Amino acid sequence: MDSAEFTEFGTAMIQYITQYLDNIRDRRVLPTVQPGYIQDLIPAEAPEEGEKWQDVMKDIERVIMPGVTHWHSPNFHAFYPTANSYPAIVADMLSGAIACIGFTWMSSPACTELEVVTLDWLGKAIDLPPQFLSGPSNGKGGGVIQGTASEATLVALLSARTRFAKKHLSNARSFDEDNFISKLVSYTSEQSHSSVERAGMLGGVKMRMIPTDEDLRMRGADLKAAIQKDKAAGLIPFFVVATLGSTNSCAFDALDEIGDVCQEEEVWLHVDAAYAGAAFVCEEYRYLMVGMDKADSFNFNPHKWMLVNFDCSAMWIKDANEVVEAFNVDPFYLKHDMQGKAPDYRHWQIPLGRRFRSLKLWFVMRIYGLKKIKEHIRIQIRLAHDFEQMLRKDNRFEIVTPVIMGLVCFRLKDKSNEDNEKLLKRINERGKIHIVPAKIKDLYIIRFAICSRFTNLEDVKIGWQEIQDATTELFPSK
Amino acid sequence: MDSAEFTEFGTAMIQYITQYLDNIRDRRVLPTVQPGYIQDLIPAEAPEEGEKWQDVMKDIERVIMPGVTHWHSPNFHAFYPTANSYPAIVADMLSGAIACIGFTWMSSPACTELEVVTLDWLGKAIDLPPQFLSGPSNGKGGGVIQGTASEATLVALLSARTRFAKKHLSNARSFDEDNFISKLVSYTSEQSHSSVERAGMLGGVKMRMIPTDEDLRMRGADLKAAIQKDKAAGLIPFFVVATLGSTNSCAFDALDEIGDVCQEEEVWLHVDAAYAGAAFVCEEYRYLMVGMDKADSFNFNPHKWMLVNFDCSAMWIKDANEVVEAFNVDPFYLKHDMQGKAPDYRHWQIPLGRRFRSLKLWFVMRIYGLKKIKEHIRIQIRLAHDFEQMLRKDNRFEIVTPVIMGLVCFRLKDKSNEDNEKLLKRINERGKIHIVPAKIKDLYIIRFAICSRFTNLEDVKIGWQEIQDATTELFPSK
């Protein structure tokens, strides 16, 4: 395909994309296909001869769209948002054309440099303590773009593991001595994301789930008790993950208390704010991040709520050397003259290769500006409160947890888990909106999240009407 | 930014991309910027008010391009190729617009389904044994797109670790008993990629580097001896990585021999063909993959040599359940009705989230067709042989390893490592071409790889002339 043909193809795709997004309201949010549906629509083998791009374009509606869950439909209220914006899509086109691999500074200096600067921009925008930023810390701290929050948690856990191996073992690179790995213990809230539990599994270490208070927050005293118990048993507490904005219910752990405990007990503190971190661009939500100065690493996903397409998970580390020590293997073919003068991000992550992802962060922050980004966050939180108000007026329902960000957790009052599950299934089967449940301390909860940047008050009213209608349909007595 | 503005912006970007790639030959392949250069060119903080997209566009040449190493310049001969093609860029635009997260089948069925089918396409195209494919194996085997080969190796290692935990421990989810992790031993060639060593480090297990024969191949007998020695010492050999096409010199381990050893010793065999695997689309190179039926997992990167933009690292597993068992944590909010009827790819990888990456594989395979993909591979290998012939006619140089794929490893004959290093530095400083070295058994080697899809015979001649000129400049005596 030459440049002229790409111009035609790319132009046709731009038109397709604008039509898709401008009319996404008309599509059924959840598809109705069955597993294996695509095998009946396309051949079992790749073609030997190339096909025309026009034929591939035609297959988007025929093959792909029937099986798409439309995450950017204004009626998608499941999980949490994933970002989608025009500036990010255009930035990714440029990233695809430059197509450099930024594993070392020298392998494409712009790729590393723009990441250093835009993560300082972003850190300042959410008022992150200056020790986390590259500029103010003189390069001791700094930010990096990971693929996902799961990877950020695992990177932090492995770095903490190496910190403790250095402290306890004669050779920090092999974990041979003294049953070391079996003694390591990490801690998180019982409300934290499954990827935290998984990071423990992958790292081969114990992960204790700390019970939460009535607002589903992990508290300092409970954490402290668990750590001290393990120490008394001869184990080595080494790593804590605090969650700001849990996936279940958007609960915020008591970071300030937890930070004190981690400092007293000399344990690595990682803060996972995957979804809610974006809200810290707005001053009025920064009370939720008090204590961040006591953390060792922090992560949130601009690819969730900050208009930067996936994947763009921003992570900051207070002492980047600790990550480098855990990840550094330095083969000859990757050595270069500038080592030590700028970060080589391959030592900050699990993969070796990396795309030029900071372009989309740069495009989004410049073209929207912080003002529009704040507006976007505030609008979505306001819509969640609007929904909350609608719910409160119908006494068939109860709100289960405080509404702080763009998520409302509710259930049918005085009904069993099974009844609530029936309601959720019925709503999803009707196909007008999509929501998912959570289970909190054995209670079945329905989650309604404001996700799409297209969602407006009218859509929220439609969503609420849909929930009411499905409820009346299922439980007509009331 | 609304759809009309995106149309303008996207159209301008298409024009920029075609101009960049059509004229990439004119750019200096390596930049001359110094660490920190970008800080002087852009503000220290994100703007409060949004900027015009036109101003962002202008900054690409002012801010970004001076710091780009042009991987797609026909004069880029460093590392191995990374892919860049128009069909892949357009597919990524669509992926960015749909912007679904494909962690479960239900979260966007098309995302999972197209991945299942295109990885079967790709597996068939390289004649992978049918046990690895989803269709022929009835879903026991199957392919998945990982971000990088590093991740594929780590996924395989962690899965193997769980296989052995199930065998040796009462609770395969915790590695508490009997100093288990300290006893695990993995093996790879001393020539294998640094990411293999790193996978061992991250997994907390020993990784033995097996010496290679005169052609830099790991041989079955050497592996067998190492495994038996460890068994005799009470350790648990559990995992072997064989490399097809090493990064240093594109050496191919003796897979068939290694496969036998792994079967006899009951050890997980992972095959890493990150670069060279793409060449198996051509029948004449399949002799190098004999023995693949004895492997447990296999990986190569279409994002290297197969025209699919990064990231698209294809991995196949013979028994996908073994990966799921290592990675599965099943939170309530991700449960859905179709579980068990289609893969939930979140259990096959380290991150939870995942983009719709199979679109670019589908677009590339359809629009090029297998015929053009084979042609691309063959042209690049022929160019390497052309370069080899040029070198052979100049007796100042020697070819160090057999030229099998698109890489030529050479050095100044009868000169010290230091002299060879001087030559490489001089060549890169002159800035016309970019190459990197390797160190093989203490010998400093210069690597010349055919990378860009734009490289033609004329460019190879220019590269060779440049190497000759730099040599004459440095060592005029000869």
Automatic annotation (TrEMBL), chains A, B:
PTM-bearing positions, type N6-(pyridoxal phosphate)lysine: K304
EC number: 4.1.1.28
GO CC list: cytoplasm
Record Pfam families: Pyridoxal_deC
Top-rank EC class of the record's enzyme: lyase
GO MF, any single term: aromatic-L-amino-acid decarboxylase activity
Swiss-Prot/TrEMBL keywords: Catecholamine biosynthesis, Decarboxylase, Lyase, Pyridoxal phosphate
Cofactor(s), by name: pyridoxal 5'-phosphate
Keyword Iron-sulfur in annotation: no
PROSITE patterns the UniProt entry points to: DDC_GAD_HDC_YDC (PS00392)
Biological process per Gene Ontology, one example term: amino acid metabolic process
Domain of life, source organism: Eukaryota
Subunit annotation: Homodimer.
Family classification: Belongs to the group II decarboxylase family.
Name of the featured protein: Aromatic-L-amino-acid decarboxylase
Protein's organism: Orchesella cincta (Springtail)
